[in-house]
């Protein structure tokens, strides 16, 4: 009985903390949260070569304690603006597809939260990659559905796109809940498009690749280790290790 009371006390304490955090976060006005760019994306008028970037940022409100929102930005050769592809769940309320295509700053803060650059490829061969990204966006199978947990959500979408372009070698953060959601499939490549993954509805699974290393998914939460980009992966905390090195080179095609 003592252990039961202790567990109940801890659970109640965690619930109070989460409710308090949610109340505090909700007090902030999402409409006034900053969406200013942070300087991670080149000026498209100055950078004439083709460019693809992938970003992640903590989500709005209390959900940001657990997960991130991810998106993909492209700029074909000589284009004067970026095109950003992402999934936004609340678009369903007005009967729209959850897939949003917009011209915005790719490195803009996500409701005040600083974005992290996950992948950056530019130069020769990238226009072909952009075409394949656009085809993957058009073929996304969950455009009319959304679930923050375990998916499909914005991270499910980004992982879907990345599987179509493994040259990006993009390693999504362990806090990208939904990246492991495969729908009715149980076997695929890892979210980066390399290696292999086994997943049951995004709730339980394992992935191994030369990009992600080894990841274990338990109830949508990722635990893992990556010997190729030395780091430890934990739920809530995210990636622990030296600063991520983003490779900008891509093989010409």
Task: Describe what you observe in this structure.
- With 253 residues, the protein is of the alpha+beta class.
- It is 20% helix and 25% strand.
- The chain has helices spanning 2-27, 126-138, 154-164, and strands at 51-58, 68-75, 83-87, 99-102, 116-122, 187-188, 196-200, 204-209, 213-218, 221-226, 231-234, 238-240.
- Strand 2 (68-75) and strand 3 form a beta hairpin.
Output the number of helix runs: 3
- Strand share of the residues? 25-35%
The percent range for helix content is 10-25%
Number of DSSP-assigned strands: 12
Nearest-angstrom radius of gyration?
19 Å
| Computed structural class | alpha+beta
Q: How many separate structural domains?
A: 1
Q: Main beta sheet, described?
A: 7 strands, antiparallel
Question: Which key terms come to mind for this protein?
Answer:
single chain, 20% helix, 3 helices, 253 residues, disordered N terminus, 25% strand, seven-stranded antiparallel sheet, alpha+beta
Entry summary:
It is built from 3 helices and 12 strands, in the order αβββββααβββββββ. It has 253 residues and is an alpha+beta fold. A hairpin with a 3-residue loop joins strand 11 and strand 12.
Helices, strands, pairings?
Elements: H1 2-27, E1 51-58, E2 68-75, E3 83-87, E4 99-102, E5 116-122, H2 126-138, H3 154-164, E6 187-188, E7 196-200, E8 204-209, E9 213-218, E10 221-226, E11 231-234, E12 238-240
Antiparallel strand pairs: 1-2, 1-5, 2-3, 3-4, 6-7, 7-8, 8-9, 9-10, 10-11, 11-12
Helix pairs in contact: 2-3
């Amino acid at each position: 009985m003592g252990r039961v009371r202790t567990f109940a006390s801890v659970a109640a304490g965690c619930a109070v903390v989460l409710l308090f955090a949610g109340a505090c976060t909700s007090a902030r006005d999402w409409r006034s949260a900053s969406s200013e760019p942070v300087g991670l994306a080149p000026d498209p008028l100055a950078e004439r070569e083709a460019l693809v970037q992938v970003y992640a940022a903590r989500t709005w409100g209390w959900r940001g304690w657990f997960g991130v929102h991810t998106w993909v930005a492209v700029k074909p050769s000589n284009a004067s603006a970026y095109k950003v592809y992402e999934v936004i769940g609340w678009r369903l309320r007005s009967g729209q597809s959850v897939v949003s295509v917009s011209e915005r700053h790719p490195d803009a803060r996500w409701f005040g939260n600083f974005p992290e650059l996950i992948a950056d490829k530019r130069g020769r061969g990238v226009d072909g990659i952009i075409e394949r990204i656009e085809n993957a966006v058009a073929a996304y199978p969950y455009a009319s559905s959304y679930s923050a947990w375990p998916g499909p959500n914005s991270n499910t979408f980004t992982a879907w796109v990345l599987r179509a372009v493994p040259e990006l070698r993009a390693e999504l953060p362990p806090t990208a809940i939904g990246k492991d959601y495969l729908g009715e499939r149980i076997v695929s490549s890892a979210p980066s498009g390399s290696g292999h993954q086994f997943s049951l509805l995004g709730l339980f699974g394992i992935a191994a690749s030369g990009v992600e290393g080894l990841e274990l998914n338990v109830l949508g939460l990722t635990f893992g280790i990556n010997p190729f980009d030395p780091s430890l992966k934990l739920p809530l905390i995210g990636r622990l290790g030296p600063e991520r090195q983003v490779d900008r080179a891509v093989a010409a095609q």
